[in-house]
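Two proteins were folded this term; both appear here.
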Amino acid sequence: MTGGVGFLLLPPLMQIYGRRFINVIMNLVIFIGWVIIALSPNVPTIIAGRTIQGLSFGGLYICSILAGEYSHPKRRGFFIIFKISATGIGELICHGFGFSLSWRQMAWLASAPPALAALGTAVWPESPQWLAYKGRFDECVTSFEWLRGNGMEAQKELKEMITAQQELRNMKKLKKSGALMRNLQAMKSKEFLKPFTVVL
């Protein structure tokens, strides 16, 4: 159930706080959930650990966008398929260890991947697309060149991305200014001034 909450909650949080920060938090939440389960003295604590994890597990399906934003267009399909395959392989490995390890040992073992993922993600550059979306174009260029280099093809993609975001930001500004002018015009109309005068 909490997976559905995470699925709905994480996309807007990623837009506000960035891909990297939210991805680190997601992995830390999963790690904390496994630690709670490993140390749990009773069933309600296990349920609490799984409930906490659900918030992040729901967002793992959304994280395919990271492969799209961080990787070369020609390799994005491979990384997305690899992510899906890795999930299945991880489940298979866990079931294999389950024959010889206790559930507490399994919980400790399962806590390692999200901890490593959080540490690894913390040293990534932020997503160039998100930086461009926020209007932080200098940081966007630095991040993009760190990830993709500065070859002709990469520079062309970078220029197109920044241009598209600049046009989008200009359109939003025009819409806001247009809405303000409409409100000012409405305040000058008789329909607004008559009741306003009566109130005064």
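Next, the second protein.
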Amino acid sequence: EIAKYFQQGDIAYTGKIEPINAEVIMAPYKEAITTAYNEVFGYYMTVDENGQPVKAPTDSLSWNELKNQYQWFEVGTVGMKGDYSGYKLVLVDIACDGPCFSPNLYRFLWNDLTDELVFLPQYSTTFIQEWNKPLFEKRDTTGVAFNNVELPDELSLPQGKEVVRKALENSNFLRSDSFKVAFTHPDVGDVYFVSGSENPSFGCFYVQAPDGSFARYEYDPGFFAIDGDSIGRFNDGLNGLVDGTSFNLNADYTYTVGGCGITGNCYTIVKADPKNLTLAGKTDAGGVEFYTVKDPIENASAATGATAEQIAFAESYKTYTSMYQWKVEQEGYTLLTFDEYVTLKPMLYWQDPLGRWSTLSHVDVKPLAECGKPVVYLYPETPMDVQVKVEETVFTKTIPEHGTDGWAVRAYPGGAVYNYGDGATYPYLFWEGVSKPAVSLDRGFMVERDDLEGFLNDALDQMGFLAHEKTDFMEFWLSRMLDNTQHYFFVSFVGTEDMNAIAPLSITPQPDTLARVFMFYHPTDTAFYVEPQVLNPVSRYGFNVFEWGGTSSIPWHE
């Protein structure tokens, strides 16, 4: 059934998502795309008997092998809309280059009588793979707007007391078993959340359009005003909240996030029992109540009979002392004692309108968004001078030293880099740093502890890691991951586009291909369902730059 919002508008939806044979709709383009693809992937990188990267030719792929990368669907027809009246609205899901957790969705108008395809960039993924450019040459330049293609910017929650706002168009495609109905909206129909008690994306809402695409919505409790300040009041006055100490949420608190700017979507949902919490304050506007852990204990554990909330608080203090050690060593920072940590109110619990618990972290002690050992490999076709700069706010470590202008090096085809700054040669460029939160992810893999090594081996192979890159990755990450005692790991990989948003990489001369793969993992004792992520090989041709790194929801220990 087509939801009310989409029933009246410029597009007459069929109510079905009908597959289209790629052989039919792409007939005018298949020769050009096949040629372009084989030019890009005419060789692959391997290693010789000395372990040095070398080129090896690949077998050319035929159109019959390539066409499976394109999944086309007819979803509706354009009504009275100028020159496009009667055109079919079609959508294509194109396989990703490297890891991706949001689909590459592109919308076109199709005249099935003349085979004309008109690309609609205003309603599509912005990134276009090099070999697919022939498909996108004819595009709408009029800026035509359809009033029922995109979902509304805001939706009211049940009882109409609060709203959720759209955060990401085309976040998912086609519904899976991980989506459960949260409530039914009178205009857009069923509103979903992702099931699983510890899923890092659990705080989001999802709505499906008639073309099969989803938009992700986020609830905004009003903690962080865009203009002005959001003020709260602690329950510490003579008359409780009436004359309690005021505080500025914008300046003092933030949503609890993961590392390196990578985290679960929206706010993280946590388990909490109200009887183990104490009312600590509330917001002046909206009256959202905040709670702190009752009777925190520094060495809380299950063996001492501590509550789950006390244990979580004690773990947060351990996390703080571990992650801020680099500030002690490099900046002379003084760590807070446990009593000082308690007084600061580092964790504030709150409930969303559906009764789910989440937390805010005090900015002075929040987990740092650290990127763990990103390494950059340079593979020019001939020796060349290269300037590389990571646009980071704070570096915790770089090898060789990353100056104000970055690294100035001489790069060689085998991957070695000679650094002009210190006159030494390195196998790669290394950096660790703290990034601003930028990317939310909601798909990946649930991996049992005993299967972790095999899973990582397979995943890195699928993404096209070279042998020495894979060895470097496994040597750094496997032991650190297994230092955690949990039985499961939620693992997801972030690709080039998203890493460019977290920590932009400036390279001169510009490489022919840049591939960035970052892993995010979340140790957990409770397995939960996650939407499987698509892993494809990264592109490697011409002057190729490859980078890998990772981070965790829980800091690792050196």
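The mean pLDDT is 84. The chain is about 15% helix and 35% strand. These notes refer to the second protein only.
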